[in-house]
Amino acid sequence: MAYRTINADLVLVTLEKLQQRILARFPDAGLGKVCGELQSLAREANGRVTRLVRPIIWVRLGVGLVILAGLIMAGIGLRALNLEAHETEMLSVVSGLESAVNLMLVVGAGVYSLTSLEARVKRHDAMTGLHELRSIIHVIDMHQLTKDPVMLGGARTQVSPDHKLSPFELVRYLDYCSEMLSLSGKLAALYAQDFNDPDVIDAASDIEQLATNLSQKVWQKITIVQTSHDIAATA
Predict the structure, then answer these.
(1) How far is residue 126's CA from residue 118's CA, in Å, rounded to a whole number?
(2) Which spans are transmembrane here (predicted)?
């Protein structure tokens, strides 16, 4: 099973090494700080995923007590209705039965809502983490947005982006962005890995697709630089 599921601890180790590589080559760039934030999200994701697979005891106890109280009250009501049936006319009994049926329907809806409470609490927790991942993916994209390979050696204006990267450095910077996007997608997949909730699975899939699409855009830039300047891949 070690090679069939994503290990959150190994993702975190990979992010830590990636940040070290970024800081070693671009110590003054904000990308290293973004990678640090992604590490924080990875730690939070690990904690959230652990909570998702565990039962929420206080919710289950509370739901059980409410259901038990409802059953007791329903039993008392049926007993009272049975006693009343010996003392009233048939029309009143039918009216009482109709009220009892309506009450049972309402109670049933309430029981269903209570039994799904745990799933809704977990879904909210997972969605919060996924929203944070979606946000940082866009932050990563913003950091590569102005790294335009067409500007290498081209005429610049006073308002041109001031990145001053060589072709080799530009490839490394873009590659780091691509790795961060890929790891963000893996963190999103963690939420859907052990928590089989349709909404969470859909949200995680959307984030993975977003990260993949942005990574492809980054690799188009890398390909342009490598083709134009004959740069080999390296760490």
Answers:
(1) 12
(2) 57-78, 90-114
